[in-house]
Design goal:
Layout lengths: L17 H33 L1 H8 L4 H8 L3 H13 L4 E3 L10 E3 L5 H4 L11 H10 L1 H10 L9 H25 L2 H8 L3 E5 L5 H9 L4 E6 L2 H13 L6 E5 L5 H8 L3 E7 L8 H11 E12 L11 H21 L11 H10 L4 E4 L7 E7 L1
Bound molecules: S-adenosylmethionine (SAM).
The site of S-adenosylmethionine (SAM) has 26 residues, from helix 8, helix 10 and strand 4.
Length: 380
């Protein structure tokens, strides 16, 4: 019998010794902390969507009526949001704290601007807000899928998750992609003299765009299963003046070879960033990518930095990856295929196993320092 009701019958209270009572209290405290963090993140998401942080950054200290007018929202909501954000330490109060609530002014501290508003700063963490929202919105569908053994398609997580992922990974692409490629001097030299790059599982295209901007003579072909991501990536590339050498198409990475043939290309470098673990047929994808490479072409896979083996309790990075797996990556892959559904936690040994099964000769961890990702150079 399962229920989502809060009126479940009480269990007989267990006898707890002192250590268990401490563990009980620590768990209760932990859940309260999680509630606080989650709720505040949703208030940040509300502010993000309404452009409230941007308005404050552009206009300086505002009272609730001024914010309401500038952002086009109701004054009563503006007042409550401003008070809550200041109570949470996200905004600073300007002038006397005991001023009448409607007259009180609030400002966005300078130090918070990169984290909340600069999409290419390495400290940017605004993606966390839409990511949490996208996962939360999918919970009812998840419960059904868990019972049925079915999946929840990528598009069901909406623009929240799509943009959350894009926003989370974009600063790394914008600021670090040149360095990542330089960890493979031969590949870097090739890209500097013009080359073709295949970006499989490109999402909303930030990786392809960053590669094209870092290496002005390359041509990039991004493919992704999600049609909306591809449309957004295409619009971004055009906006950035890259439409002539950055192309996006809807496609399955397991059909990369057909895609390359259709476009008359062979890739000197294939790039799969945080997408291999999502693919329903990862060995097929790696094999097809191999056929889309030039004979000496190289594959660069970046995927989650998780431990070599299952551990419990795990560190924060692995915990966040597992949470994504339960809420998003595993169900999205289950919607694509039920044959291989790895989930987010892609261990190094699995990458090696898949690459070998796909016919590659070697897999090397490039040793690039990154909190979330491990970078594998895979040679034929
Ligand atoms: C976590 S997102 C990463 C997107 C992008 N690489 C980035 O870092 O922003 C994973 C992406 O893989 C795509 N994907 C999943 N299965 C795929 C497949 N079989 N072929 C191509 N793309 C796939 C999803 O649509 C999604 O855009």
């Amino acid at each position: 019998m399962t229920s989502s009701s809060t009126a479940e019958p009480r269990l007989d209270p267990p006898e707890l010794d002192a250590a268990e009572q401490e563990a009980r209290d620590a768990l209760a405290e932990r859940l309260f902390g999680a509630l606080l963090g989650g709720m505040e993140l949703l208030t940040i998401e509300t502010g993000r969507r309404l452009g409230l942080y941007r308005t404050l950054a552009e206009m300086g200290a505002l009272n609730s009526a001024e914010l309401a007018t500038a952002a086009g929202i109701a004054e009563r909501y503006a007042r409550e949001w401003l008070e809550q954000q200041a109570a949470a330490g996200l905004l600073a109060v300007h002038g006397p704290m005991d001023a009448d609530a409607p007259a009180r002014r609030y400002a966005l501290p300078q130090a918070y601007i990169p984290v909340l508003l600069d999409g290419e700063d390495l400290s940017h963490m605004m993606g966390a807000a839409p990511m949490l929202t996208g996962c939360a919105l999918a919970v009812p569908a998840l419960v059904d899928a868990y019972r049925a053994g079915s999946g929840v398609p990528y598009e069901a997580y909406g623009e929240e998750l799509r943009h959350g992922i894009g926003s989370f990974n974009r600063p790394g692409f914008a600021k670090m992609i040149g360095e990542w490629i330089d960890a493979m001097p031969d590949v870097s030299a090739r890209l500097r003299s013009g080359a073709v790059v295949l970006d499989a599982g490109c999402g909303t295209g930030w990786s392809s765009i960053a590669l094209a901007e870092a290496f002005p003579d390359i041509e990039v072909h991004g493919i992704d299963l999600d049609a909306t991501s591809v449309a957004e990536a295409t619009a971004l590339a055009t906006e950035r003046g890259l439409g002539d050498r950055v192309h996006f198409s809807v496609g399955n990475a397991a059909e990369s070879h057909d895609h390359a043939r259709e476009h008359g290309i062979s890739a000197d470098l294939a790039f799969v960033f945080e997408a291999l673990h999502d693919m329903g047929n990862p060995v097929g994808a790696l094999a097809s990518i191999r056929s889309a490479l030039t004979p000496d072409g190289v594959l660069l896979v970046a995927d989650e930095r998780v431990s070599d083996e299952f551990i419990s309790p795990a560190g924060e990075v692995e915990r966040v990856q597992y949470a994504f797996s339960v809420l998003h990556c595993l169900p999205a892959t289950m919607a694509e295929s039920t044959s291989v559904a790895n989930g987010t936690v892609l261990r190094a040994s699995t990458v090696r196993e898949w690459a070998t099964a796909a016919g590659y000769g070697s897999v090397a961890d490039l040793g690039i320092e990154h909190d979330f990702f491990r970078f594998y150079r895979i040679d034929q």
